[in-house]
Amino acid sequence: MSMTTELGAARPGGVPLQAAMTLIARKRRLALAVPVLVLAYLVYVFFAFDVPGLVQRANMDNARILVADSYSHKVHVTRDARAGEMVYAVEGENKGRYPEGTMPAWVSGGFDDTVIDLGGGHVVRFLPDRRVTYDMPDVGMIQIDRVDGGIVAQFPGYRPGESPDWASVSDSRVSITTDAGRVSVTRSKDEVFRYFPGWELFWFTLDSPYHGRGLGEILFGPQIDPARGNVVGAVADFMGNPMWRHADVFWAIGETVLMAFLGTFGAAVIALPLAFLAAKNFAPVVALRFAVRRVFDFVRGVDGLIWTIILSRAFGPGPLTGALAILITDTGSFGKSFSEVLENVDGRQIEGVQSTGAKPLQRYRFGVIPQVTPILLSQILYYFESNTRSATIIGAITGGGIGLFLTQAIQTQKDWEEVTYYIVLIVLMVMVMDSVSGWLRRRLIKGDDAGH
Amino acid sequence: MSDLTAARSPNAARALTQNSDSYLRMVRARRMYSGLMIALFVIAMILGFRIVEGRSAGGFWDGMPKVLDFPAGLVTEAWEKRANLPGYFVEFFPALIETINIAAVSTLLGAALGLGLSLVSTRGLAPFPRLIPVFRRIMDILRAFPEIVIALVLIFILGGGPVPAMIAIALHTAGALGKLFSEVSENVDLKPVEGLQSVGANWWQRMLLGVVPQVAPNYLSYALMRFEINIRASAILGFVGAGGIGYELRNAMTFGTGRFDISAAIFILLFLTIVFFDQVSSHFRNRLVHGVTR
């Protein structure tokens, strides 16, 4: 103790060591207190967000469906008792139906004698009187019969009325799920699903003559459809694919980018003259400058969400609302940052232009604009890129562009392969915008001398 | 000047006029290019606008007169029932807190993850330099995911509530902050790191004691900026079902005319919150970057 005071006293003019020690001790306490506070906050939030309850409520079946569906598809074989017909369809959708008279290679027979090979030794048979049998390796023959209008399932090794846990049995419904596929028998129909990896019919649907053809065959092979050239026909059928609607999806991506483009550049065009009014060194009237600044702050503070809601009341759903919402919000952001750029402008260039007798507008055009263009353009491009992301989100709210497709596909809760497709496209779109805008910005900053 | 040159030799004068001619030609060509660019830009704007208008339910000129109808209705109704507003403020305050909590936690977690990602993807600091491109790509992908995508998918699995929004925003934040952080760390002074290495400090100690003190002010400043952005994002995600004030706002909007006072109250709360945190954060950011001493 005495030594520290001695040492502190020994340094004339310096900070006394005692003070330094207290400072260090305080910093150490702070360094300890911050993590403790953060931890305490996280614990509070853990309970405020009800994470333990959430873990219980989380629907892991949904997660499994989502993951499985995002990379695989199923083909339905349905015996429809009401219509008295067999239906073979990809994902059970009308658009994925096998044309009349055709069926998958692993199915044979007809309404009263269908044999469905699920692979790996799993075979399901549809028999007369709507009997269904499922021959499962290591288990044996499962028999499903109709008795007095109800459904009765008999599993080998189980007593009547009992069932293993991979099957759910009731009077009106029997469903069996295995790795090979799924069988479900109800009063009105018997259905078998077989799962395959990959996205179904991504290129062409079954009714297209190009279905199942390779790229080389389409490009270099003999003409497939007598009415159309191979490439023209294939592109048309791909774009018009009724299941994936590629043309519409690409349009939607374009629409999202367009929303961002119009919003960002429209905002820049409006904000630039206003920024002159708000910049200290250009503002003609102080009161006006103050007012314009407050308008910028207000517009920014109201936020894109509220603008979207307000505008969608006037312009209805669609990309117009989204573009205008981005435009208004960014007018505020641009106004603020542009005016800051203008305040840091080099005054000598303006004086130089002024000395040649230039009028105010000419002074701005030749003295100011060339100086600030690269900085402003760089900022605009940065916003353009981040606005493609915002446009996706706003599109989901107001209904436009890829955001709309995404929310619609998610709401059906079954088209997860489409959701995956949209997500991939969105991420690609954002990354492309990111690198294009980054490349342009680097070129601008490196800047050839062209400032106008 | 020109007299002098001209007097020296007629050749030099000719060279000068040639110079100025070619200079003027260059300027003219450049002007033409910029003029062309501007013309193209204007055409693109008009065309784009028409396309967007054609694909929307309402036209621009039809909607324009109606723009102020809703805000006007909102304001009149809120003014008529202004006695109700304080009650609504109290009622929706917990939801507001939830929105702020979502933003705060996702900023904290995202910054922590971003910090880790930035350290392993900065040249000179990374423990596995070969993996730098991998970690950079991971950050690019995290950044490219709009929050809403992850939030909607997670809502399907976890159900509505704040957690999906929090995870979604945290992931995006990790990508965005990771990139900014690593730009800061690229410029870090490596001498303290080497000093620590020479006394046998391991990677964690070198990062914590050698790098973090140098970059902490900039990191904090970026994290605060991100917090501002995340409050807005959290309100938007609430609107698609992730809890908080956005969710209440969507419900209030469905009540329609007659109950606009509720929407107005939420608008005011949201506006004040955003402005408040913008001000607080920019105040602290100024202090961090310009280092105001106490």
Structural class of chain B: mainly alpha
Structural class of chain A: alpha+beta
The CATH architecture term of the largest domain in chain A is: Orthogonal Bundle
- Count of discrete alpha- or pi-helical segments spanning 4 or more residues of chain B: 12
Q: Largest interface, by Cβ-Cβ below 8 angstroms: which chains and how many residues each? A: A-B, 66 and 61 residues
Shape of chain B: flat
Strand content of chain B: under 5%
Shape, principal axes of CA atoms of chain A: elongated
The topology string of helices and strands of chain B comes to HHHHHHHHHHHH
- CATH architecture type of the largest domain in chain B: Orthogonal Bundle
Give the termini separation of chain A: 69 Å
Looking at CATH, which topology of the largest domain in chain B would you report?
Answer: MetI-like fold
Helix fraction of chain B, binned, reads: over 70%
According to DSSP, the number of beta strands of chain A is 12
Question: Could you estimate the helical fraction of the residues of chain A in percent?
Answer: 55-70%
- Overall mean pLDDT of chain B stands at 86
Low-confidence stretches of chain A: 1-10, 448-452
Distance between the termini of chain B: 58 Å
Q: CATH topology of the largest domain in chain A, which one? A: MetI-like fold
CATH class label of the largest domain in chain A: Mainly Alpha
Q: Which stretches of chain B are poorly predicted, pLDDT < 50 over at least 5 residues?
A: none
